[in-house]
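LAB NOTEBOOK - FOLDING QUEUE
OPERATOR: T.R.
BATCH SIZE: 2
PURPOSE: Compare the predicted structure-token outputs for two unrelated chains run back to back under identical settings.
PRIORITY: normal
REVIEWER: second-year student, initials M.K.

ITEM 1
FIELD SEQUENCE / FIELD STRUCTURE:
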Amino acid sequence: MLYYALIFLVVAIVAGVLGFGGIAGASAGIAQILFYLFLLFLVVSLVVGFIRRA
């Protein structure tokens, strides 16, 4: 998931440099959502891992 967030971020940067503002904004929004989902899943995974050890 982090890989896809980085891909959308690169697409947003390239589109922004080339002047495609709508595509850049959409790609940046998708990248942000995917990054936050990645962080959420990381935290849940860590909590479940700590619970199973205890």
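ITEM 2
FIELD SEQUENCE / FIELD STRUCTURE:
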Amino acid sequence: MLTVTLFTKAGCGLCDEVKAHLQQLQTNYPHKLQEVNITEDDNLYSRYRYTIPVVQIGKQELAAPITAVQLQNALQEAS
């Protein structure tokens, strides 16, 4: 099963939108969602604090703003 990594932090509304899009795409593109809280790692925080949500799907990395179409395309390519 494909793993989708979502770099996020508490209170991130855009992150919640991405999670909702991924949930809607789950039926057609089965995947396991792995959430990584960037505030728990100094390196991740300095790298992603201005660009979250960031999603890694296969070799692709998507940064905010992320649309449902971008997620679908990335899931399709990685499947």
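REVIEWER COMMENT (ITEM 2): Residues 3 and 32 are 5 Å apart (CA to CA).
FOLLOW-UP: none requested
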